[in-house]
Write a structure and sequence with these properties.
Radius of gyration: 25 Å
Strand order of the largest sheet: 3-2-1-4-5-6
Shape: elongated
CATH class of the largest domain: Alpha Beta
Distance between the termini: 5 Å
Organism: Streptomyces violaceochromogenes
Largest sheet: 6 strands, parallel
Enzyme class: transferase
CATH superfamily of the largest domain: Crotonobetainyl-coa:carnitine coa-transferase, domain 1
GO molecular function: transferase activity
Structural class: alpha/beta
InterPro entries: CoA-transferase_III_domain, CoA-Trfase_fam_III, CoA-Trfase_III_dom3_sf, CoA-Trfase_III_dom_1_sf
Strand content: 5-15%
Number of domains: 2
Pfam family, one: CoA_transf_3
Length: about 400
């Protein structure tokens, strides 16, 4: 079993090895595919973990075929979005030879991540009970759609969970049809929960020497992420409904039209509302009995919306954004994604990064453009070592030699 305490010189000269990241020395056997699991393991890889992506022969991760769009080499941008800093090996888990090689890889790893349908890993002889008995230090992270009990047979697709988990019931216009989020948000949230669970289990292992099973599922991850909406039901029995871009508890907290495109107003207190009224040339509005407090504004939101819409229609969203932000009012235009990256760049925030000198298939060529890791660490920042790998690119390197390019460090 690999440990987290390898000395840096054990990996000297190995271009695939993590440098000095917060998770340097941590090895993850990643049997997951599509989004939730790969997103979790990419975040950990960015922070220094050595992630070995185990893929099936021929097709590999499902998302390799999910295009358009694709990059200049014809590689799915969906796959590219969650698989950097990983090495890919191909194993046929339907054959004993493949399973034996998988067990060897697991024996030399700290963490296993999988998101097969519940029961699949057990049928392959790779279930958590068997592996934790054999390797008590292993962290075994299992990601499912609806848990390993009564919901085990339900396929775990993000759209399905958004529907049955209530998110679509609060997304969309009040009198329109339910709408899904524009990205697979539940998968992303579940991936975050998985990475958090893994780190918590590693902290426990540091203290006790014992690994454990970490289980996360899409449904309860969504219910937790519904925060105030879920709390409204749990505490007060309120079943929320669709309100478009309005907020059930705050006003004005929504998008409103301007002369050219919508602007978002996120007015969270009375001081900000007074500043808004001053900025749009209606200073007396803050003292109007209908709008004096937030509760008043929520009760009269339609009247307030009509007044603000008339004022905001006199100029562009960019004009009002500049005026309102200068007045201390949280506001901004509804950007397209290119505008959003440009905005981040303007603010000096990381948006897009390049992994130089490599492409996913050849290992050499033009830089691979990637969306930046979202966490900033002052001492051990995120690293961009490897582009998303070509299918099975590292199979021989990993399975026929030491995992870290030096003498095997398994214990």
């Amino acid at each position: 079993m690999s440990t987290q305490h390898q000395e840096p010189d054990e990996r000297a000269g190995n271009p695939h090895a993590p440098g000095h990241g917060a998770l340097d020395g941590l090895r993850i056997a990643d049997f997951s595919r599509v989004l939730a699991g790969p997103y979790a393991t990419m975040l950990l890889a960015d922070l220094g973990a050595d992630v070995i992506k185990v893929e099936r022969p021929g097709t590999g991760d499902d998302t390799r075929a999910w295009h358009p769009p694709a990059d200049q080499d014809g590689i799915s941008t969906y796959f590219l979005s969650v698989n950097r800093n990983k090495r890919s090996v191909v194993l046929d888990l339907t054959e004993e030879t493949g399973r034996a090689r998988a067990r060897d890889l697991i024996a030399r790893s700290d963490v296993l991540v999988e998101n097969f349908r519940p029961g699949t890993m057990e049928r392959l002889g790779l279930g958590h009970e068997e592996l934790l008995e054999r390797h008590p230090e292993l962290i075994y992270c299992s990601i499912s759609g609806f848990g390993s009990g009564a919901g085990a047979a339900i396929p775990g697709y993000d759209l399905l969970v958004q529907a049955v988990g209530g998110l679509m019931s609060v997304t969309g216009q009040a009198h329109g049809e339910p709408v899904k989020a524009g990205v697979a948000l539940v998968d992303v949230i579940t991936g975050l929960h998985a990475s958090l669970g893994i780190l918590a289990a590693l902290r426990h292992r540091d203290a006790t020497g014992r690994g454990q099973l970490v289980e996360v599922n899409l449904l309860t991850s969504l219910l937790s992420a519904m925060v105030n909406q879920a709390s409204a039901f749990a505490v007060a029995g309120v079943v929320p409904e669709r309100m478009g871009n309005a907020h059930p508890s705050i006003a004005p907290y929504e998008t409103l039209p301007t002369a050219d495109r919508p602007i978002a107003l996120a007015v969270g207190n009375d001081r900000q509302f007074a500043a808004l009224c001053e900025a749009v040339g209606k200073p007396g509005l803050a003292q109007d009995g209908r709008f004096r407090t937030n509760a008043d504004r929520v009760a009269h939101r339609e009247e307030l919306r009509d007044i603000l819409t008339r004022r905001l229609g006199a100029a562009s969203a960019d004009h009002w954004s500049a005026v309102l932000l200068a007045a201390g009012v949280p506001a901004g235009p509804v950007n397209t994604l290119d505008d959003a990256f440009a905005f981040a760049h303007k603010l000096g925030l990381p948006g897009i990064v390049d992994i130089p000198g490599a492409t996913a298939d050849s290992g050499e060529g033009a830089p691979s453009r990637q969306v930046a890791h979202p966490i900033t660490l002052s001492g051990t920042p995120a690293q961009y070592r490897l582009p998303p790998p070509g299918l099975g690119r590292h199979t021989a390197e990993i399975l026929d030699g030491p995992l870290d390019g030096s003498d095997d460090a398994s214990g």
